[in-house]
Recover the amino acids of this structure.
């Protein structure tokens, strides 16, 4: 991809108006949608409560546990933010206006993605406040593990956004995209791990089969963090008795395999899904809806 | 210039547009007339590069819709029969978004937006949210969107549908102004008298076939080569019909209802004056006398059968 292409996609992409739309929809009280203002108010109250709880219990709440909570929360929030992005254009019938305009399909997909990432970025940024409070006061945490857990969380979130966009590009109704995304997440994060859990009772088997499961990964990072911190505490002089990256004795997979490998895998997967979504837009969706009723292809 | 060459669209075994051809020049306002399902929207969507033609092509200012669709898109303003507006954006943001898509330079955008808002009479609504506009204003905003990049060709699919009479009149004036600005405008509509008012060229399409194409007066003239005179007499209708049938330039004469006579007349306006004078001189009790000229609606009804694809 040339520098020109990158600029067209990232810097001069007209679809970046999505950032304004997301901001107005989710982060203002004065937008056109008053319901959005009420929801935002409730979210801010919940957020303030969370911050207060963390401040009150700052010595006993692990920052990685908070990042796990953030991942779960945003896994639900991301599909709800994006499910209408392309399917909604079709429902609103603004899709034709984009297709008839000199804009590439990649620009459309990347613009939608960046709009959602900007909105979710604000949410992630806000959630970093309690994480930072917990990380600065929770003795057992290593900053490197917190950053790594955050990277896993954010890249998985990007993956979820790409998946939602892909579904939104492939279906005609936004709610179908939402259902398909949540169903896929439920299958990948809950159903399959449950089946694997029944099949393999030992940790070694789980380490391998759930290697890409974000919550399992975050749990393992948390365990490594605790283990490493305990070892550090056992050596009051400050001498490290374990080298960074070593792992608890019951772990089959070495500690350095938890965190960054998954983060990079999620990032790669997000890019692949985005590419797939852009490619999906090439099929002649518009021709389908103009087939007359009763026609064999309708 | 727009050249449409044997444009054809098939869906499976069904032919929606059967190889239509026509040419339009800058300043032409082309009224595309047809029943629902006749192929108007399919044709417009092919010209808008939204549908790929099965055969044939169209060339706009040397850009072929099949070879250079992106180039064509930069030169067209497409207004479908629905608004497709975004919520959560203001009027100026919506126009700025499309100006950015059409690569209107940043420093010119504010001026361009102001001028299209002025042209469409929406200046006062510049900072309003799009969804807060009335239907007529949304329609005008759609038209403003089509104009931000100064397109050579405007494709307006049923632009007047759902508008109140005032909004229709304003839209009509606006389209006429666009024609005067040298743009090619293609308008599809069911409201034939309105089209006849401001279109200088019309095309009648049925079952995907272009039945007639050309200036309104030419099409009407072809459809009705002779003058038709409607005469109302007070008494002796049958006697008047007999008298008229033997007069110069009269092709046929018939009593159409009590007191009404319909005359097909091949003479010019001078002959028509003489004909009336002679008729009165012969003692016919003429109450009213007028030329019954056909309009676009008559031509449309005469040419089409109402059959759908």
């Amino acid at each position: 991809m040339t520098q020109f292409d990158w600029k067209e996609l990232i810097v001069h992409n007209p679809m970046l108006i999505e950032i304004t739309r997301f901001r107005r929809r989710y982060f203002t009280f004065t937008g056109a949608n008053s319901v959005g203002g009420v929801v935002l108010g409730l979210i801010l109250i919940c957020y303030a409560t969370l911050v207060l709880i963390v401040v009150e219990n700052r010595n006993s709440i692990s920052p990685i546990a908070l990042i796990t909570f953030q991942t779960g929360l945003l896994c639900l929030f991301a599909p709800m933010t994006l499910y209408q992005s392309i399917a909604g254009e079709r429902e609103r019938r603004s899709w034709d206006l984009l297709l008839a305009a000199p804009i590439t399909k990649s620009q459309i997909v990347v613009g939608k993605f960046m709009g959602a990432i900007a909105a979710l970025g604000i949410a992630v940024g806000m959630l970093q406040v309690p994480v930072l409070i917990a990380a600065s006061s929770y003795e057992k945490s290593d900053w490197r593990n917190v950053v790594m857990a955050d990277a896993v969380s954010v890249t998985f979130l990007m993956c979820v956004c790409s998946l939602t966009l892909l579904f939104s590009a492939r279906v005609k109704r936004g709610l179908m995209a939402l259902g398909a995304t949540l169903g896929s997440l439920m299958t990948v994060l809950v159903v399959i791990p449950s089946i694997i859990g029944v099949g393999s009772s030992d940790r070694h088997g789980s380490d391998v089969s759930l290697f890409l499961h974000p919550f399992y990964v975050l749990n393992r990072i948390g365990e490594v963090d605790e283990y490493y911190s305990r070892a550090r505490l056992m050596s009051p002089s400050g001498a490290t008795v374990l080298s960074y990256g070593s792992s608890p004795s019951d772990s089959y997979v070495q500690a350095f395999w938890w965190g960054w490998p998954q983060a990079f895998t999620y990032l790669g997967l997000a890019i692949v899904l985005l590419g797939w979504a852009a490619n999906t837009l090439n099929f002649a969706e518009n021709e389908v809806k103009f087939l007359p009723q009763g026609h064999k292809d309708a | 210039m727009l050249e449409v060459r044997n444009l054809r669209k098939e869906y499976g075994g069904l032919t929606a547009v059967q190889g239509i051809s026509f040419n339009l020049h800058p300043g032409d306002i082309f009224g595309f007339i047809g029943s629902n399902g006749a192929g108007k929207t399919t044709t417009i969507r092919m010209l808008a590069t939204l549908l790929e033609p099965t055969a044939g092509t169209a060339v706009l200012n040397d850009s072929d819709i099949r070879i250079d669709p992106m180039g064509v898109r930069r030169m067209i303003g497409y207004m479908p029969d629905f608004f497709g507006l975004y919520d959560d954006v203001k009027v100026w943001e919506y126009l700025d978004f499309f100006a950015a898509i059409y690569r209107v330079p940043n420093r010119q955008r504010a001026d361009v937006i102001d001028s299209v808002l002025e042209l469409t009479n929406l200046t006062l609504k510049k900072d309003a949210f799009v969804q807060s506009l009335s239907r007529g204003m949304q329609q005008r905003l759609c038209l403003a969107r089509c104009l931000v990049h100064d397109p050579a060709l405007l494709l307006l699919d049923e632009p007047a549908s759902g508008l109140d009479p005032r909004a229709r009149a304003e839209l009509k004036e606006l389209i006429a102004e666009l024609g005067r600005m040298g743009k090619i405008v293609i308008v599809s509509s069911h409201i034939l008298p309105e089209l006849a008012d401001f279109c200088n060229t019309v095309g009648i399409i049925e079952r995907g076939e272009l039945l007639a194409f050309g200036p309104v007066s030419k099409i009407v003239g072809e459809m009705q080569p002779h003058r038709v005179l409607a005469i109302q007499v007070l008494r002796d209708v049958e006697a008047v019909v007999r008298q008229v049938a033997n007069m110069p330039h009269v092709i046929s004469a018939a009593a159409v209802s009590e007191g009404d006579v319909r005359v097909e007349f091949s003479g010019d306006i001078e002959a028509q004056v003489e004909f009336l004078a002679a008729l009165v001189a012969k003692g016919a009790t003429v109450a009213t006398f007028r030329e019954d000229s056909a309009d676009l609606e008559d031509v449309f009804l005469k040419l089409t059968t109402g059959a759908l694809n």
About this structure: Residues 205 and 252 of chain A are 8 Å apart (CA to CA).
